[in-house]
Structures are given as structure tokens and as C-alpha cells.
Amino acid sequence: MRPVARLCLAGILVLLPAVSIADVVPLVADTTVDAAATRALGSDPALGVSARRTTYVRFDLSRIAAGAAVHHATLLVFVGRVLASGTVSVHRVLGPWDEDTLTAAAAPAVEAALPETLTLSDGTPSLDYLPLDVTPAVQAWLAGAPDHGLALTGDATVDAEFASKESQAIAHPMKLEVVLDDPRD
Length: 185
Description:
- With about 180 residues, the chain is mainly beta.
- It has helices at about 5-15, 135-140; strands at about 20-25, 25-35, 45-50, 55-60, 70-85, 85-90, 115-120, 130-135, 150-155, 160-165, 175-180.
- It contains two helices and eleven strands; from the N terminus they run αββββββββαβββ.
């Protein structure tokens, strides 16, 4: 290749934007813990969040390399219905759990809430995905922290339902979209 052509090609490559790699990570477990429930709710078609109900979700990050640089991670929650306005917070779960056996009595502890919250009201669109930034949690897991999933908790007023992976009427379970930094940078 001629020197001028090499220089032009190099200039074009420098001007191309970095390409990020996005992946939707598979959901492997979801359940609600209800302080008033006498049984595990892992097979229920809806996930509840309120002052007494906490939703737990876990995703399979095994296809993302440990130590990968996470540009952004978004938890997408499909709102089934909002029964009362309020705020939903997301937390990293600190211990193991199983959707078929988890109850309020055996619920693992959670960390302090991640920075972004979801405010729900009468005007919140139902039957739609809403995003929550969970980048710090995914970065921690890929850096070696134990991955026990996320917990969604409600403030004193919120009462909402999200679609679970068991829902046959609304086939829109929660999703985790992870965008990795371009490894060429």
C-alpha cells in the first residue's frame, strides 16, 4: 500500500467512534418475599414491591469475562401495574437465595441502595419496560464480588407489580442489559 493511502486509512480509523458491546444477560431466578406470606412465592406470575414486599432477581453473568470493563448496566423492569405511588430502590443482595424456597424469614441481607431509584405514580406507563441504572453492582460482580443478584425494595407508600419469568399472560420478565467498553480503547 502506498504511504499516502496508509495515512488516509489511519486517519479514518482514528475518526471512527469506539464501538461498545451490548449484551442482554439471561434471567435465572426471580421471586417476591412478602412479610405476610406463609409460603415461597417463586412460582407466582407477578413480582411485588411495597413496604412489606421485596423482589429478588438474579442474572447469569457467566458469558461476560471477569474483569470486563462495564460502561453501563441497566435493569429493565416490566411494570404490570402501579397500585400506589412511591419509590422503588435497588440493592445488591449479600447472600445466597433460591426462588423456590425464599421466604421473609430466610431473606438475605442487602447493601445500601444503588444511586438510581424508580419513582412510580398514577402516570407511570403500565405494560412497559422502565430502566434502572445498576452499573455499580455489575462492575462489582465482574471485579470479583459475590453475585447474589439484586433486591427491589419499596418505600412506605409504593405498591407495584412487575412481570416475572413465570408469567404466561405477560411474557416480559426483567432484563439486564450490559454495555461493555470497547476493548480496543
